[in-house]
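Re: that backbone. Tokens:
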């Protein structure tokens, strides 16, 4: 039945083989959020940069444990931001984060000392061992250590580390440039325009334009054309002129009289690498390469075929361009038994739940037909069921993917 349709894994392999990493750019740290690191970060500094106190208290020294009951004169004070200080005997009043005066090696918290009436001396109320309450230089990051690998997505937590290390310019992968072309004479772009009989509103265009930036790409051109090969070719040209690395089209790749995309691409000198994949939805998906190494994904027009084509074909290619490793799904038990047709891999609009005990389960939503957008709006994840599986009992483990490759699936509460 699917002799002419490629297995998903084989089709994905072809996509990945034809995708390559984009050039590296130097990005100022403040602009790096959500960019992908293009080279490992090797620390040129130590963190902390100097031995400092973990507590507000008193810094002192000793050969071994300094016992409770010891009395010491207060020699000086060291606050965060104070520079080098040299200590002799005695104790230094010290604040959290302050540099430990040279010669001292431990800190006793202020709660564990008793001050003399004059305030000039302290008595220890607890033993203090060497290194106690000292955050030593390099204990978090040593100089020369690799702290972030190439391919790391830079979120706030990575930016914190880069900022602490004083990395001013970060090598990041260029963002893939994507042109979006929707086809179909039935489509209306302007939400304020009344529909004539037979017309529908374009939902694939807004969906792709919203999703692609979340997947790490820039939409550099977007337009809608009728079922017209010449208009389509002109739209492709404008996408290429805008510097697109990738063109995503929707519609006109199936069997209908107006499904002109495959032929139009051939006439433009594109090399079609596959057309039709054994998946549902999105089976008529087409992948081609245009002169100049531009990848073209011809997504079938049904809205869920577009969503699946983007998530499971375009996004893996974007990951290669961004220098990211292949994605791995999580494995989650099915909330309810699920039956499907064999021989096709199914990508299912799903909702990840968290129950009262904090356990995860995935619900395959009703309304899987590829024209139904409403369940997509209630989905927070995709479940993927392999081609050779036809029936799964409740509790069977299935692959679950987030709504986008940079988004971990976020569960909702079962009672929500
Ligand atoms: N005889 C056959 N007919 C169809 C087959 C088949 O194998 N044999 N495959 C079906 C499958 S599966 C899909 S998916 C669609 C794909 O069709 P096309 O890629 O040619 O897409 P269109 O015909 O242009 O549109 C399909 C459907 O989607 C609506 N659409 C298109 N663009 C948009 C948009 N931007 N926003 C919202 N909706 C859109 C369009 O109006 C159609 O209803 O073919 C099946 N048929
Ligand atoms: O692939 Mo189509 O989206 O099944 O209707």
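Recovered sequence:
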């Amino acid at each position: 039945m699917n002799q002419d349709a490629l297995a998903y894994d084989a089709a994905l392999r072809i996509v990945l083989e034809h995708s390559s990493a984009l050039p590296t750019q130097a990005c100022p740290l403040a602009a790096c959020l959500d960019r992908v690191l293009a080279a490992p970060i090797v620390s040129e500094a130590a963190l902390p940069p100097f031995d400092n106190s973990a507590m507000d208290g008193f810094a002192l020294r000793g050969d071994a444990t300094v016992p409770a009951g010891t009395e010491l004169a207060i020699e000086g004070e060291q606050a965060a931001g104070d520079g080098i200080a040299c200590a002799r005997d005695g104790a230094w009043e010290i604040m959290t984060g302050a540099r430990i005066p040279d010669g001292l090696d431990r800190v006793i918290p202020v709660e564990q000392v008793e001050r003399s009436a004059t305030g000039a001396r302290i008595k220890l109320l607890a033993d203090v061992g060497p290194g106690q309450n000292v955050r030593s230089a390099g204990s978090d990051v040593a100089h020369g250590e690799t702290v972030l690998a190439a391919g790391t997505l830079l979120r706030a937590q990575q930016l914190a580390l880069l900022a602490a290390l004083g990395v001013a310019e970060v090598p990041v992968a260029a963002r893939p440039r994507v042109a979006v072309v929707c086809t179909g004479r039935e489509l209306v772009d302007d939400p304020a325009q009344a529909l004539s009989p037979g017309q529908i509103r374009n939902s694939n265009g807004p969906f792709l334009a919203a999703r692609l930036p979340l997947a790490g790409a820039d939409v550099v051109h977007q337009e809608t054309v009728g079922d017209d090969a010449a208009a389509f070719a002109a739209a492709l040209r404008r996408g290429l002129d805008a510097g697109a690395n990738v063109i995503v089209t929707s519609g006109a790749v199936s069997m209908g009289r107006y499904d002109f995309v495959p032929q139009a691409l051939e006439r433009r000198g594109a090399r079609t690498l596959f057309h039709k994949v054994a998946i549902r939805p999105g089976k008529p998906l087409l992948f081609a390469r245009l002169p100049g190494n531009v990848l073209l994904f011809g997504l079938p027009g049904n809205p869920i075929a577009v969503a699946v084509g983007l998530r499971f074909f375009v996004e893996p290619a974007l990951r290669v361009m961004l220098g990211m490793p292949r994605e791995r799904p999580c494995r989650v038990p099915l909330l309810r038994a699920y039956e499907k047709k064999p021989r096709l891999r199914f990508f299912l609009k799903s909702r990840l739940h968290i129950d009262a005990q904090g356990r995860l389960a995935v619900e395959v939503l009703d309304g899987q037909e590829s024209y139904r957008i409403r369940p997509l709006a209630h989905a927070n994840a995709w479940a993927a069921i392999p081609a050779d599986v036809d029936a799964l009992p409740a509790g069977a483990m299935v692959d679950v993917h987030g709504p986008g490759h940079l988004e971990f699936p976020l569960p909702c509460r079962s009672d929500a």
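The longest helix spans residues 303-321. The chain has four domains: 8-23+174-321, 24-47+139-173, 52-135, 330-413.
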